[in-house]
C-alpha cells in the first residue's frame, strides 16, 4: 500500500480490483502499456501487450480504447493494431470502433511553433522535435541541460500563439486547445459499445488527470501508474509490468 502525505490529509492508493462490473477500459500508452524509452521511436510492438489488448477487446465486447498523447498512427504501430477505438494527440484525434475518425482543426500558428522548435533543436544535440500535426513536442530527455531554455521558449510561444502547454515526461508540448483525454473519454462513453458501462482509466502523466476526472464523474475511477502523487485517481499500480499482469487477470476473470 502507498501512503501519500499531502498538506493536511493522507491518501492511500491500493491496487485496483480485478473483479469489475461491466467495465470499459481506457488505457494510456507510454509509461502504462509501454515502458519509457530514450526516444519515442524506440518504443515498438511487443507480443505480450498486443495479445492482452486483443483478448480484452474481445472479452469486453469492444469496451476498450487507448487514449494517448501520440498520434493514431503511432498508437496502431505500437499496439500492433489491437485498439480499434483510440484517441491520439491528447484527445485531438478520435477514432470510433467503426473506423470513423474526428480530428481537431489546427491553428496556423502551430506551423510557426514547429519551425521555432526545429530552429532551437538545430544547435542543441539531443533535443528532438515531434511534429504530431495538432501538437508539437520538444523532447529534452537526451539533453536535460537544455530544460530551462526549452521551458522558456515553450512558455513564450504559448503566450504569443494561444496554444496550450502540455507538460509531460521530459517533453514540452504546445497543442491545439479544445480537447483533452477527458473530453475523449466522455465522448466514447456516449456511444456504443461504451454506453452504460463503468469507465476505468489507467494513466501515469499529467495529461491523464483529465481522464481520471472524467472517469470519476461518470461513476468509474482512475488508476495511477507509477509513484504516488497528488492525483484524481483512486487506485495505483507500480509500473508497466504490474499493468500487464492486472490486465491479464481482468481478461481471465469472469464477471
Ligand atoms: O499519453 P501517452 O501515451 O503516455 O504519451 C505521452 C507522450 O509519450 C511519448 O513521449 C514519452 O515517451 C517517450 C518514449 O518512452 C520518451 O522518450 C519521452 O521522453 C516521453 O515524453 C510521445 O513521444 C509523446 O508524443 C506523447 O505525448
From TrEMBL:
Keyword tags: Hydrolase, Magnesium, Metal-binding
Swiss-Prot/TrEMBL cofactor(s): Mg(2+)
Region entry Disordered, spans: 83-105
Coiled coil spans: none
Pathway participation: Glycan biosynthesis; trehalose biosynthesis
EC number(s) on file: 3.1.3.12
Reaction catalysed by this enzyme: alpha,alpha-trehalose 6-phosphate + H2O = alpha,alpha-trehalose + phosphate
Enzyme class: hydrolase
Lineage: superkingdom: Bacteria
Annotated Basic and acidic residues bias: 91-105
A GO biological-process term: trehalose biosynthetic process
Protein name: Trehalose 6-phosphate phosphatase
Amino acid at each position: 500500500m502507498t501512503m501519500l502525505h499531502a498538506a493536511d490529509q493522507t491518501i492511500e492508493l491500493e491496487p485496483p480490483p480485478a473483479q469489475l462490473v461491466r467495465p470499459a477500459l481506457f488505457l494510456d500508452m507510454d509509461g502504462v502499456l509501454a515502458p519509457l524509452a530514450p526516444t519515442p521511436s524506440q518504443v515498438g510492438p511487443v507480443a505480450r501487450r498486443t495479445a492482452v489488448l486483443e483478448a480484452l477487446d474481445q472479452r469486453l465486447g469492444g469496451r476498450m480504447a487507448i487514449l494517448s498523447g501520440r498520434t493514431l498512427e503511432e498508437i496502431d504501430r505500437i499496439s500492433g493494431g489491437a485498439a480499434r477505438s483510440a484517441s491520439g494527440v491528447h484527445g485531438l484525434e478520435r477514432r470510433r470502433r467503426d473506423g470513423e475518425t474526428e480530428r481537431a482543426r489546427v491553428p496556423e500558428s502551430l506551423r510557426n511553433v514547429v519551425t521555432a522548435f526545429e530552429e532551437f533543436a538545430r544547435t542543441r544535440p539531443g533535443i528532438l522535435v515531434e511534429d504530431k500535426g495538432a501538437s508539437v513536442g520538444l523532447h529534452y530527455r537526451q539533453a536535460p541541460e537544455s530544460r530551462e531554455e526549452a521551458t522558456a521558449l515553450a512558455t513564450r510561444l504559448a503566450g504569443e500563439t494561444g496554444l496550450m502547454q502540455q507538460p509531460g515526461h521530459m517533453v514540452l508540448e504546445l497543442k491545439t486547445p479544445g480537447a483533452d483525454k477527458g473530453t475523449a473519454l466522455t465522448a466514447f462513453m456516449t456511444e456504443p459499445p461504451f454506453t452504460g458501462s463503468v469507465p476505468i482509466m489507467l494513466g501515469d502523466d499529467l495529461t491523464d488527470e483529465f481522464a481520471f476526472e472524467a472517469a470519476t464523474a461518470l461513476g468509474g475511477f482512475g488508476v495511477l501508474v507509477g509513484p504516488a502523487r497528488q492525483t484524481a485517481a483512486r487506485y495505483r499500480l507500480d509500473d508497466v509490468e504490474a499493468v500487464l499482469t492486472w490486465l491479464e487477470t481482468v481478461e481471465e476473470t469472469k464477471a
